[in-house]
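Retro notes, structure queue

What went well: the backlog is down to a handful. What didn't: a couple of records were mislabeled last round, so from now on we paste the full input next to the output in the thread. Example, using 4-hydroxy-4-methyl-2-oxoglutarate aldolase from Actinomadura craniellae:
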Amino acid sequence: MEFATADLIDDFDAELASCETQFRQYGARTAFAGPIATVRCHRDNALVKKLLNTPSDGRVLVVDGGGSLASALMGDLIAAAAVTQGWTGVVINGAVRDVATLRTLDLGIKALGANPRKSAKAGTGEVNVPVTFGGTDFHPGAWLYSDEDGIVVASRPLL
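Corresponding output:
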């Protein structure tokens, strides 16, 4: 699927939310899109790992880590599992690690920054609940489109 988020805004502005958070790009796939799945967690990536190790069929995982950069919510092993399971991308309102390896994976990865520190593994958090950051609501099942210009969200597939 080829698209540009700027073109989507031009064509579907009234239907789109544009995320204001300025994420860094980490994955080899710079443009990605798909239906949203969500995780809300704070410095604990057990739910992220569990979800990204399940078959996806082209979904995008949106992780609300509360903007914490204190520990990474995804590293190379979890990201590699996401590729194997067919995830299109991951957007993390928090940190990642193993950045050099993430850049080689055919996965869209956006995060606020990097930190080599591991997160907790207790499994605290929530899965498939609406999350909000960057002035945008991310609802499970809505569609996310991401490229180098940013992230937009629509309630339905646009392409």
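Agreed that this is the format going forward. Reviewer comment attached to the example: The two ends are 8 Å apart (CA to CA).
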